[in-house]
Amino acid sequence: MGDTTVRVGPEPLTFDQVAAVARDGAPVALTDEALKGIAAARAHIEELSARPTPVYGVSTGFGALATRHIAPEMRARLQLNIVRSHAAGSGPEVEREVVRALMLLRLRTLASGRTGVQPVTARTLADLLNAGITPIVHEHGSLGCSGDLAPLAHAALALIGEGEVRDAAGVLKPAAQALAEAGIEPVTLGAKEGLALLNGTDGMLGMLVLAMRDLRLLLKAADVAAAMTVEALLGTDRVFAADLQELRPHPGQAASAANLRALLADSGIMDSHRGPDCTRVQDAYSLRCAPQVNGAARDTLAHAELVAGRELASAVDNPVVLPDGRVESNGNFHGAPIAYVLDFLAIPAADVASMSERRTDRMLDKARSFGLPPFLADDPGVDSGHMIAQYTQAAIVSELKRVAAPASADSIPSSAMQEDHVSMGWNSARKLRRAVDGLAQVVAIEILTAARALDLRTPLRPGPATGAVVAALRERVPPPGPDRYLAPEIAAATELVRDGSLVAAAEAVTGPLA
């Protein structure tokens, strides 16, 4: 195995490992310890299956149908049926990275030795990941309780050679064909295995981990954008001083302020208005309070990372196989812990974007931009400059405010009132992905606008760090001039924000940003 292989065992996966498999296609391998634990738990299931005493999920129906005892000759059909019937999703395809994260996290739970599956089932799931086979999972179908049932059922369907998948090249084809082409034998499910493949919170957790990684980068980009705008608007950096920030000792606020100080160091523009002739004593909130908002977002993210770390150490299934051989029902599949932080993160994503849009608007308003041309236009009136770029920001921010409303505050009873309270965590996760995507676009438009404003301050020069960001952007986006087709420039700036290029340009000067 190469160095990139993610070894999956009972121990927790890291955020980096989840992203490596989900996004970068890193191979996976089950550890010897995992295979030993899986085999031991399977032996307990086989022994219990032979007993006359009913055991939930082994020799009974599911959910509200758990009162029915299933005869031994019907149990293979029972497991097959739960996969087929629960693969009832609807709507657009879910993104490949989300499905791969879901599959990896289910594999990690199988590797915990608490689910009772056959070793071959876990191995086959690993084989699908390594072959780049991605089951078709749909947008709608999970209530975030009893886990992400429909999404996981669609993934399990591929394991048995049914349903549709995309191969490593992204070609849509029947699962049976894709497995055959990859030399993978479909799984024949045994007692409890259908249930074990479905009963987890892996989809919402996978989306949380991926969103956290994106937000960690985007919050650095938001600090870069804020620093550029402070320069462009001839603002002050005195408010970011460490002794002022220490009066309110939030870790995220301190980190954001330190970033801003580093980004604005040695700025010719800042130095140009430090003298006694400067009559401005304080800036608008969207400039002055950037560390408080971007910092609070960091602290919210830190809490989410704490919760996600606990979840990555969990074995979510119902029932579970305990080390002493007992098979016990439980409620660990309830998605509330994940759903709450998914909803929580959507709030700062919206608010950071909202503040970014307000700063952009200030640069475009000649009454508040301290000498910049209206809308940063080349020939105002003939040219509109970045007028409509701010409209785009405003439209996105409005949408982010809407998706900041919690999904986890809702619950719709299901399964004949057996599942009478659900988390809606999958919906929280889908909302957060939209919020993260929107935040990237809004921050990119601010950086695009601030770069134009900084160029228009010539011959005054920005600081080395913000100047490096402008230079990196100029490799893809031309300097100020007459109006031109703006959408491709917004798209280019957004790509540079998402892939970390602009943050990397700043960090080449400042060192790592917090």
TrEMBL record:
User: Key word Membrane present in the record?
Assistant: no
What Pfam families does its record include?
Lyase_aromatic
- Give the matching Gene3D superfamilies: Fumarase/aspartase (Central domain), Fumarase/aspartase (N-terminal domain)
Going by the entry's taxonomy, the superkingdom of the source organism is recorded as: Bacteria
Localization, per the record, is: Cytoplasm
Q: In which pathway does it act?
A: Amino-acid degradation; L-histidine degradation into L-glutamate; N-formimidoyl-L-glutamate from L-histidine: step 1/3
- EC number assigned by the record: 4.3.1.3
Record note on modification: Contains an active site 4-methylidene-imidazol-5-one (MIO), which is formed autocatalytically by cyclization and dehydration of residues Cys-Ser-Gly.
Cross-link annotation 5-imidazolinone (Ala-Gly), location: 145-147
Report keywords, A-Z. Answer: Cytoplasm, Histidine metabolism, Lyase
Reactions accelerated catalytically = L-histidine = trans-urocanate + NH4(+)
- Mainly localized where? cytoplasm
The similarity annotation says:
Belongs to the PAL/histidase family.
Entry's NCBIfam families? hutH, PRK09367.1
Q: What is this protein called?
A: Histidine ammonia-lyase
- The record lists the organism as Actinomadura yumaensis
- State the gene name recorded for this protein: hutH
